[in-house]
Amino acid sequence: MFFPYFTIHLKSLLSIKGCKIKFPVQTNWLGEYSISSNNSINEFPNSYYKDNSTKQCYYSIGENAIRGQLWSAMDQQGCSTDSKTYACLLQDCVKKRALAEGKRIHAHMIQTGYKLGMFVCNDLLNMYAKCGCLKDACYLFDRMPEADTVSWNALISGYAHHGSNQQVLKLFRKMQKAGMKPDSFTFTSILSSCAYLGDLDKGQQLHTHVIKFGFESQIFVENALVDMYAKCGKIESAHQLFLEIPNKDDVSWNVLITGYAQFGLGEEALNLFCQMRRMGFKMGYFTFGSVLKACGSVMLLGQGKQVHACIVKTGYESNSHVRSAIVDMYCKCGRMEDAQQLFDEVPEQEEVSWNALISGYAQNGYSEETLKLFYQMQWAGPKACHFTFGSVLKACGNLAVQKQGKQIHTCIIKAGFESDILVGSAILDMYAKCGSVEDARAMFYKMPDRNLVTWNTIIAGLCQTVGNEESPKYNLEALKLFYEMLWADMKPNHFTLSSTLIACSNLTAIEHGRQLHVYTIKNNFEVEEFVGTSLVGMYAKCGAIDDAYKCFEKLLKCDIVSWNAMVAGYAQNGHSEQALKLFQQALREGIKSDEITFNIILSVSANIAALEQGKQVHTYTIKTGFEPRVVVGNALVGMYAKCGSIDDACKMFEIMPLRDACSWTALILGYARHGYGREALQIFEQMQQNGMKPNEITFLGVLSACSHAGLVNEGCYYFDSMSRDHDISPRADHCACVVDLLGRAGRLNEAELFIKKMKLKSDAVAWRALLSACKIHGNVVIGKRAAEHILELEPNDASAYVLLSKIHLSDGNSDEAITLRNMMKGKGVKKEPGLSWIEINRKVHYFAVRDRSHPQTENIYAKLDELLLKMKGAGYVPDTNCVIDDMEYE
Question: What's the whole-model pTM score?
Answer without folding.
Answer: 0.60
